[in-house]
Design a protein that fits this description.
The longest helix has 25 residues. By secondary structure, the chain is of the alpha/beta class. A six-stranded parallel sheet has the order 3-2-1-4-5-6.
C-alpha cells in the first residue's frame, strides 16, 4: 500500500485520467496499489470497452477475461448477462464505489463535482444510461480517454487535461461555480483561511461581524490578508463594532479593510444582523445571549482566544481560531499603532504640563519674552484661555 505522501504527489488530472482508464504509467504503480482506485478504474475500462462492443457478448467477455478476473479479484461480481446488463450494473457499481476514492483528492476541491463525472445519469434505467452516453458514443475521438459525464463532449479535451487548474476551472464552471486556484489556497494556507473557504463553498455572499473590543487586531489583519481574492469577493459587508473599550490599533485596521465596510459605534450585540444571510463572526464574547442568538444559524465564528473554543462548540456554533503568526501588514500595524499611541500620549502629557515646561524652558534659555510673544505662544499651542493666559503673564513677571 502506497503512502498518503506518495498519493499527494500525483496531480488531480493524472488521478482523473487513471480512474477513467487511461494508461498513466507515471501513477499506475502508486494508484494501482489502492483497491478503491483500482476498482473504479477497472469498472470504467470495462464500460468504455463495452460501449463500442460490436461482437457477441460471449466473445467480448472472453476477450476481456483479464479485466473481469481483476474485478473478481477485488470482490466485484462480474455476473453480467448481456452488454446492456453490464452497462447498467457497472453504472450502479460506480455510483456505489466512487465515494471510496474521495481521500485521493485534496479537501479544498469540491468532491461532488468530481464524483459526478463517473456514473452516467440515469441510475438503474438502461434507456436513460444509454441516452446519457449517446453523445460520447457519436464522437468518441472527442475524449480518447474514455467516458465522462460531461455534456459538452465537443470540448477541446487535449487542453482540458493540461493542468489541474485548467481542468478544475472548467469543471467548476460546468457546475455554475468558480474555482479558487491551488496557488491561491495552498495546503500551507492558515487553517483559519481553509475553514473560511470551506464555509464559503455553499454561499454566494456572507456578512462578517467583527467585535473590535474583544478581537486581537493583529490576528484579524493577518487572517484577512491571507484570504484569497476569490473568497474575499464573497463578503457582501464587513461590519466593525467599536465601543469605548476598543483598542486604538483598530483605527489602523479600518484603513486596511478593502471589502465594503460599515462602522458601528456600539457594543457588539446579538441582534446586530437579523436576516438569513450566512454570518462570519469574529469575537471572543461568550455571553449567553450572544451564543443563543446564533445557535442553529449558518454561522462560522472565529476566536482570538483558543481556550474559548470548547465553550462555543458546546453551544452548537461551529468555530475556528485565528492564528498567532503575524503577516507583514500586521507587523507594520503593530509598530504604527504603538508609535501613534506614544505620540498621542506624549502630546497629551506635554499639554497637561505645558505651563511648567514652557516656563522652565524659557528660564533655562536665558531669553526674555515680551507680552506679545507670550500671547503668540499661547495661541500657537492652543492654550489661549481665561485660565492659561493669566498664568503665562504671571510667569513673565515673576519667573521670566
Amino acid at each position: 500500500m502506497k503512502t498518503c505522501n506518495e498519493i499527494k504527489t500525483i496531480s488531480i488530472v493524472e488521478k482523473i485520467l487513471y480512474l477513467m482508464g487511461d494508461e498513466c504509467p507515471e501513477c499506475a504503480d502508486i494508484l494501482g496499489s489502492v483497491s478503491s482506485a483500482r476498482i473504479v478504474r477497472n469498472l470504467c475500462m470495462l464500460r468504455n470497452k463495452a460501449l463500442f462492443c460490436t461482437s457477441d457478448y460471449s466473445d467480448f467477455r472472453q476477450y476481456e477475461e483479464d479485466l473481469f478476473d481483476a474485478l473478481a479479484g477485488d470482490g466485484i461480481s462480474a455476473d453480467f448477462k448481456t452488454r446492456e446488463d453490464l452497462l447498467l450494473k457497472v453504472n450502479l457499481l460506480l455510483e456505489e464505489r466512487i465515494d471510496s476514492c474521495r481521500s485521493l483528492f485534496p479537501d479544498t476541491v469540491k468532491w461532488a463535482y468530481i464524483r459526478d463525472l463517473f456514473p452516467a445519469p440515469g441510475g438503474g434505467a438502461i434507456d436513460e444510461v444509454l441516452e446519457a452516453m449517446e453523445v460520447f458514443m457519436k464522437e468518441p475521438d472527442s475524449c480518447p480517454y474514455g467516458y465522462l459525464n460531461w455534456p459538452d463532449h465537443a470540448s477541446d479535451w487535449s487542453k482540458l487535461f493540461t493542468s489541474d487548474e485548467t481542468f478544475l476551472r472548467t469543471l467548476y464552471l460546468k457546475n455554475g461555480d468558480s474555482f479558487l486556484p491551488a496557488s491561491e489556497l495552498s495546503e500551507n494556507a492558515p487553517e483559519s483561511v481553509k475553514e473560511l473557504h470551506r464555509f464559503l463553498e455553499g454561499a454566494n455572499k456572507v456578512v462578517m461581524l467583527v467585535d473590535c473590543a474583544k478581537t486581537d487586531p493583529l490576528k484579524f489583519v493577518s487572517f484577512l490578508e491571507a484570504v484569497p481574492d476569490a473568497d474575499a469577493e464573497k463578503f457582501a459587508k464587513i461590519r466593525l463594532f467599536f465601543d469605548d473599550n476598543t483598542p486604538t490599533a483598530w483605527g489602523f485596521v479600518r484603513n486596511s479593510v478593502l471589502a465594503p465596510t460599515e462602522y458601528v459605534q456600539s457594543r457588539f450585540s446579538a441582534d446586530s444582523y437579523e436576516d438569513s444571510t450566512p454570518l462570519v463572526l469574529v469575537t471572543d464574547d461568550v455571553r449567553d445571549n450572544i451564543l443563543t442568538a446564533y445557535t442553529g444559524r449558518n454561522v462560522l465564528t472565529f476566536l482570538s482566544d483558543s481556550s474559548l473554543r470548547k465553550q462555543i462548540s458546546d453551544a452548537g456554533i461551529f468555530c475556528a481560531v485565528l492564528e498567532d503568526k503575524l503577516s507583514s501588514a500586521a507587523a507594520y500595524l503593530k509598530s504604527a499603532a504603538i508609535n501613534n499611541e506614544m505620540l498621542a500620549r506624549r502630546n497629551r502629557l506635554i499639554m497637561e504640563n505645558f505651563l511648567d515646561l514652557f516656563a522652565s524652558s524659557v528660564i533655562a534659555s536665558g531669553i526674555r519674552l515680551t507680552d506679545e510673544e507670550i500671547g503668540n505662544v499661547a495661541m500657537q499651542y492652543d492654550i489661549y484661555s481665561q485660565s492659561a493666559t493669566p498664568r503665562l503673564f504671571e510667569l513673565r513677571a515673576s519667573e521670566i
